[in-house]
Design goal:
252 residues; alpha/beta; 8-stranded mixed β-sheet; binds S-adenosylmethionine
Length: 252
């Protein structure tokens, strides 16, 4: 496990230091940039959210970053409020129609039960106290409200694939994760249940051929021509051991 500081070119920072997102601010909306996979995950997460018929329905996006879910929520009828620590990301989220709120996901300045949907995409594994973030997510949900999330599991395989291998790929920023913060899926389900949300989880992964085509195109080989616009699809897989999605409704 890597504990020491890492460099993404601009400056040397400890793993998972949120200032990394300022250094990488220009990458958020580049489809082939450092955050490319976040675009694929945002599309898959948004697909878990049904359109609403409730006037004024609110979707609270915890750790929204630059608001990558926004294009995938268009037409679903929600007001999209994003909460994040990183102001440079929030500015970009606001430019994409997100109502941006600076704050910590463990202490969100919004009322109990205000949200029809809470999304927590690729954020829990960055929060030193992920249980506090889950408590907030559940607190924000109205009875019958929907929680959707994705995160990395607290397993040796996740550390190997997401950090030791993943962060060595040319597209992925090094040091963006601290694997000590990864989230055990059974503990997450138990924690959500404690706060009234019946969460169901399933393993997901990027489509293999789509990813190979994307990598080929990105590295200029040309072989990836004709790859899917918006990047590879995120597919369900049999194991939650690396990356998983969760979806659950808050009971009343
Ligand atoms: C990997 S990015 C995911 C962004 C977005 N959810 C997406 O999928 O595109 C993690 C985001 O969480 C934010 N973040 C990390 N810890 C946070 C905290 N404690 N409170 C609020 N935001 C946090 C970071 O600033 C960053 O924008």
């Amino acid at each position: 496990m890597r504990d020491g500081p890492v460099s993404n070119g601009a400056r040397v920072l400890p793993p998972n230091d949120p200032r990394q997102y300022d250094d990488l601010a220009g990458e958020w909306w580049r489809p082939d940039g450092a955050f490319a996979m976040l675009h694929w995950l945002a599309r898959a997460r948004a697909a878990l959210v049904p359109p609403t018929t409730r006037p004024g329905a609110l979707l609270v996006d915890l750790g929204c970053g630059a608001g990558l879910m926004a294009p995938h929520l268009v037409g679903k009828g929600y007001r999209h409020v994003g909460v994040d620590l990183t102001r440079s990301a929030l500015e970009q989220a606001a430019a994409h129609g997100v109502t941006a709120l600076a704050g910590d996901v463990t202490a969100v300045p919004l009322a109990d039960g205000c949200a029809d949907v809470v999304a927590a995409g690729e954020v829990l594994e960055h929060v030193p106290d992920w249980r506090a973030a889950v408590a907030e997510a559940c607190r924000l949900l109205r009875p019958g409200g929907l929680l959707v999330l994705d995160t990395l599991n607290d397993t040796v395989l996740a550390r190997l694939i997401a950090v030791e291998v993943g962060e060595r790929l040319p597209a992925v920023p090094r040091g963006i994760h601290d694997p000590r913060l990864f989230v055990d899926d059974r503990e997450l389900v138990a924690e959500c249940a404690r706060h009234g949300v019946a969460l169901r989880v399933r393993g997901v992964r990027p489509d293999l051929w789509g990813t190979l085509g994307w990598l080929a195109r990105r590295t200029g080989g040309g072989a990836g021509r004709g790859t899917r616009p918006g990047g590879p699809m995120i597919r369900p897989t049999w194991s939650t051991a690396v990356l998983y999605q969760g979806r659950g409704v808050r009971h009343g």
